[in-house]
Design goal:
The protein has about 230 residues and is α+β, with helices and mostly antiparallel strands. The protein is built from 4 helices and 14 strands. A 7-stranded mixed β-sheet has the order 1-5-6-7-3-4-2. A 4-stranded mixed β-sheet has the order 11-8-10-13, with no helix packed on it. The chain has a 3-stranded antiparallel β-sheet with strand order 9-14-12, with no helix packed on it. The protein is flat.
Length: about 230
């Protein structure tokens, strides 16, 4: 028999935004418990206990309802849009003798050949939809990438899994790839035509300016000669 994380719950008598805000200020989280063909039950979870449950690696949790032990999975979690604190949790009851569909993370294992050759490993698919009994839910699905070469990929079909678990995700979906690193292109410096034109104009003006003093000097020499003639 599998071990389950025991999630502490208590009934929630008051509902509504004001009551929920009071709960959160006191370190509690409002929750709902669902089961087919039954009315949902309003519950209260402890925020620290929920944190440990989420990081326990378990997907199915044990709760005590009306003196009986029930098994639940987290159907949905609502987070605060700014500080990402948990606002609300939906728990769905599961039966240990009935198969369930659940999403489980994929963990890449091993050092890929393509990475040692300078390639970049990218994980395209991070989770896998599976069907199994609650007692057979794995913490994660491993995929060995050791033989993955440059410019190659692994798909869902390459995943080996226990016979107690059925994969629902399309087997053609790509899980991981290795590709060469992208080369950084050097930026091209473009020279605008207007800039060259301005430089050309300045050069012409400079040449004309260099000739101007010579012309002025000739005029001054002529004036000097005339003055000497008049003096005679």
């Amino acid at each position: 028999m599998a071990d389950y994380y025991q999630l502490a719950v208590e009934k929630r008598e008051s509902i509504g935004n004001a009551a929920n805000k009071t709960l959160r200020r006191n370190g509690k989280i409002p929750a709902n418990y669902y089961y087919k063909k039954q009315d949902n039950i309003n519950l209260i979870l402890d925020s620290k206990d929920l944190y440990h449950a989420l990081h326990s690696g378990h997907h199915v949790f044990e709760v005590k309802m009306n003196g009986d032990i029930q098994y639940v999975m987290i159907k949905e979690i609502q987070y605060h849009p700014v500080n990402e604190s948990v606002l609300h949790v939906d728990l769905m009851r599961v039966r240990r003798d009935v198969k369930m569909t659940i999403s489980v993370p994929i963990h890449l294992e091993g050092e890929a050949i393509g990475v040692s050759e300078g390639g970049v490993l990218s994980q395209i698919l991070t989770s896998l939809d599976i069907e199994c009994l609650p007692t057979d839910v794995p913490e994660f699905i491993p995929l060995n990438v050791s033989e993955l070469e440059m410019n190659s990929s692994l798909s869902v079909a390459d995943i080996t899994i226990s016979s107690n678990v059925s994969i629902i995700t399309d087997e053609e979906q790509v899980v991981a790839t290795i590709a060469p690193p992208k080369e950084e292109e050097e930026p091209e410096i473009e020279i605008e035509e207007g800039e060259e034109g301005e430089e050309g104009e300045e050069a012409v003006e400079g040449e004309e300016g260099a000739e101007a003093p010579a012309e002025g000097g000739e005029e001054k020499a002529d004036d000097k000669g005339k003055a000497e003639e008049n003096a005679e």
